[in-house]
Amino acid sequence: MNIVRKPKVRIATTSLAGCFGCHMSFLDIDERLIDLLELVEFDRSPLTDIKACGPCDIGIIEGGVCNAENVHVLRAFREQCTTLVALGACAINGGLPAQRNHLELATLLQEVYTTRPGLAHGGIPNDPELPLPLDKVHPLHEVVKIDHFIPGCPPSADVIWTFLTDLLAGRKPSLDRRTIHFD
């Protein structure tokens, strides 16, 4: 007897301008990741160390968009993912990196690189290997279409688990507001 197995859902994750705290919460799912592996296979993620994303059913992305490289990564990631999930405050509204948005970029760079103690002879980095900073930090939805949002800073492992299991079961993900926090 041939048993036809349903293909596993492919999930990829990536991070832009943020602290990687949302990925840490994702990894805090702990042993439930083993249960998740019964339903999914991971493409690009901290679990696989794959650097490029292939076609995926679900993409999970944390962090805001603060430089030209972030824009490129986000657009390429969106193209590979059928469903894209913005994870955490930085992805949804720019988070802490967006605290610089009330400052002019030139003023900010001047202050950080040339006027701080110990940098008296420093200069603003100007190397073609460095991504060009944007004038403002942007949430993901200002650059690409986002299908779902998981708020929090960071969202807890339980919130991420509930969201993913709902999505994988074909249910509309629903988050209890009492479980969302900004630490």
Walk me through what this model shows.
By secondary structure, this protein is α/β, with parallel strands linked by helices. It has one domain (9-102, 136-177): 3-Layer(aba) Sandwich (Rossmann fold). It is built from six helices and seven strands. Strands 2-1-3-5-7 form a five-stranded parallel beta sheet, with helices on both faces. It has a two-stranded antiparallel ribbon with strand order 4-6. The radius of gyration is 19 Å and the shape is elongated. The model has no long low-confidence stretch (mean pLDDT 88).
How is this fold's topology laid out?
Elements: E1 9-15, H1 21-27, H2 32-36, E2 40-42, E3 56-62, E4 65-67, H3 68-80, E5 81-87, H4 89-93, H5 105-114, E6 133-138, E7 148-150, H6 157-168
Parallel strand pairs: 1-2, 1-3, 3-5, 5-7
Antiparallel strand pairs: 4-6
Key words describing this protein structure:
183 residues; alpha/beta; Rossmann fold; five-stranded parallel beta sheet; two-stranded antiparallel sheet; 6 helices
- Determine and state the CATH class: Alpha Beta
In what range is the share of β-strand residues?
15-25%
Order of helices and strands: EHHEEEHEHHEEH
Mind telling me the CATH superfamily name?
NADH:ubiquinone oxidoreductase-like, 20kDa subunit
Main β-sheet description: 5 strands, parallel
Average of pLDDT: 88
